[in-house]
Specification:
Elements lengths: L2 H16 L1 E7 L5 E9 L1 H6 L10 E6 L16 E6 L6 E12 L3 E6 L1
Antiparallel strand pairs: 1-2, 1-4, 2-3, 3-6, 4-5, 5-6
Length: about 110
């Protein structure tokens, strides 16, 4: 078994334990519900007081997959958005996915504005 195989197996376990369902919207494609770990970056996102000229620091960690995540190979800036709350326990709203922050064979972290 390769290291990449181990990463893929652990991604499923990690998302099962800590993920929550979110809806991904793809321009010109079908919406899909995936599991994501939403990371609200400290005070800016939680208070709604991001620095001037910057959006709140929200990122999502998802499986690197075209079927039950968002593959880093398929991602195109401006074509993907996700329905997530701006703050914890708030109502979900559509927010654009702007870039890949980090990735490996199992998971990808995307910036959300």
């Amino acid at each position: 078994m390769s290291f990449s195989d181990l990463i893929l197996m652990s991604a499923n376990d990690f998302l099962a334990a800590f993920g929550e369902p979110v809806t991904v919207k793809v321009s010109g494609g079908d919406d899909r519900v995936i599991s994501a770990i939403i990371d609200y970056d400290s005070e800016a996102a939680l208070s709604g007081n991001a620095a001037p000229g910057k959006g709140a620091g929200i990122s999502i960690l998802v499986k690197n997959s075209r079927t039950d995540g968002i593959s880093s190979n398929e991602f195109e800036r401006g074509k993907y958005s996700v329905m997530i709350p701006f703050r914890v326990s708030d109502i979900a709203e559509e927010r654009p996915i702007t870039k890949i922050l980090e990735q490996d064979a199992g998971m990808v972290r995307y910036q959300v504005r």
